[in-house]
Write a structure and sequence with these properties.
This protein is an alpha/beta fold. It has helices at residues 12-29, 37-48, 58-66, 73-77, 90-105, 109-114, 117-126, 128-136, 138-147, 164-170, 190-194, 197-209, 232-251, 261-274, 278-285, 290-299, 320-323, 330-337, 362-377, 389-397, 412-420, and strands at 182-186, 212-215, 255-258, 287-289, 313-317, 341-345, 383-386. Helices cover 51% and strands 7% of the residues. The radius of gyration is 22 Å and the shape is globular.
Length: 426
């Protein structure tokens, strides 16, 4: 974008000027017409006004902004992103608008509640049996819809009584080579820590199987949920905290590995945009998605290839935030190393964390998921995989696993762990 900073107060006139400039470019290009609801709404409204973007009303702008859930597919798809002189960055434009609207009209308490992932995870894990039971209760869900605005049909990930960090701290560490093949500081994510703990366990088990020494530094939510309300200051705070924790390990020669796509995107791409210091840059340069990392080990001959079980045919949905990293299809390649036959599904799940939980957006999110499900159904796969546990939940709810023996959607690292013959109870 030109003249707009996400870390400074938003100048309303400058933002409006920049918005019209970007809208005019989008109208002339239209490559993103089928990527997300925001573009459908934007281009439809432009057509109503016969191409005059200046005629878009405040209500039109607000709808475009509200329907953006920061999948970032448009950024990857756009031919005019930096360093092109047009400098089109539609996702950051939407964040700037969310920031402006939050300052003008405030933020609903529901929207603030939904992004408090660390607090929710801590409370949910401490009361796991009670909380999970309540979340399954239809009456409770109807009340949540009426009072909080969380759609009663929105399936949610349940909480683990034992968090990933507790599991990692209490387990008996296996003997590792001296010196280790590599050294990794694992950024597990708040989602893995409190809810999908087995993804974290599988990540550790596969790394250690390959002679990698693993540590889990102190960490907090990466800050991605705060994009939903344009709270870039909160993201900066999260970035400073996580960089301060990770950087000492990077200095000691450790790589930073992340099993969830949104979090690796934040550390790699978003943190350096919001913090310009050298420590943030070094952490970003040393951050890898877990499957990206293991395929780098494969390239250097360091990946163990003694797989004992073939996964079968996998329909693999690649998350939007992994596509935005421009690393190719490393999860597909890794699962193929393990003996899987993989069909790649390049369709958004439409989940996006808190966005799809909101009563006003849940039906739209499920409509988006339907495209991915239809693509999965055409593969005749034995199981479904996604690097994003929330995308997996969305696909399952939309019916992706209805005709499959395995009713859950697996993370690729879980599939690889199973192919090694490693027990999930380890």
């Amino acid at each position: 974008m030109k003249g707009i900073s996400l870390i400074s107060p938003i100048d309303a006139k400058q933002l409006e000027k920049e918005t019209l400039r970007i809208y005019e470019v989008c109208d002339g290009c239209r490559r993103c017409f089928n990527l997300c609801p925001s573009f459908n709404t934007l281009l439809d409204r432009i057509d109503v006004y016969e191409g005059d973007v200046a005629k878009l009303s405040p209500a039109d702008h607000h709808q475009v902004v509200d329907e953006c859930y920061y999948c970032k597919l448009c950024f990857n798809h756009c031919p005019y992103t930096p360093p092109h002189h047009y400098q089109i960055d539609f996702p950051h434009l939407m964040v700037a608008w969310k920031k402006r609207l939050a300052a003008e009209r405030g933020v609903r308490w529901r929207d603030r509640l939904l992004i408090m992932t660390d607090a929710i995870g801590k409370l949910g894990s401490a009361t796991a049996s009670i909380t999970n039971s309540l979340l399954r209760n239809k009456l409770v869900r109807r009340v949540l819809q009426q009072i909080v605005g969380i759609h009663q049909e929105r399936q949610v990930l349940h909480f683990s009584a034992e968090t990933f960090s507790r599991w990692f701290g209490r387990r008996t560490k296996p003997l590792s080579p001296d010196p280790p093949t590599r050294k990794v500081a694992l950024f597990a994510s708040c989602l893995v820590n409190a809810q999908v703990t087995d993804v974290g366990k599988a990540t550790v088990q596969v790394l250690e199987k390959n002679g990698v020494q693993v540590v889990v530094p102190e960490q907090r939510c990466c800050g991605m949920p705060n994009f939903d309300i344009g709270d870039t200051q909160a993201i900066q705070q999260a970035a400073r905290s996580n960089v301060a924790s990770l950087y000492p390990w990077v200095r000691k020669g450790y790589d930073v590995v992340v099993p969830t796509a949104s979090c690796s995107l934040m550390l790699k791409r978003e943190y350096p945009e919001l913090l310009s210091d050298e420590q943030t840059k070094q952490v970003a340069e040393k951050t890898f998605d877990i499957c990206e990392y293991l395929m780098a080990m494969k390239k250097t001959g360091q990946l163990a290839m003694d797989f004992t079980a073939k996964p079968g045919k996998v329909a693999y949905q690649i998350p939007c935030h992994l596509r935005d990293q421009n690393i190719g299809f490393k999860s597909k390649e890794l699962m193929e190393c393990a003996g899987a036959k993989v069909d790649v599904i390049e369709q958004c799940s439409g989940h996006d964390g808190s966005w799809s939980a909101k009563v006003e957006f849940f039906p739209l999110s499920m409509k988006i998921a339907g495209k991915a499900v239809r693509a999965i159904e055409q593969t005749s796969a034995d199981l479904v995989a996604s690097d994003c546990p929330l995308a997996g939940l969305q696909l399952k709810q939309a019916g992706a696993t209805a005709q499959m023996p395995a009713k859950t959607v697996r993370h690729p690292i879980q599939i690889v762990r199973d192919a090694y013959g490693i027990s999930s109870q380890g």
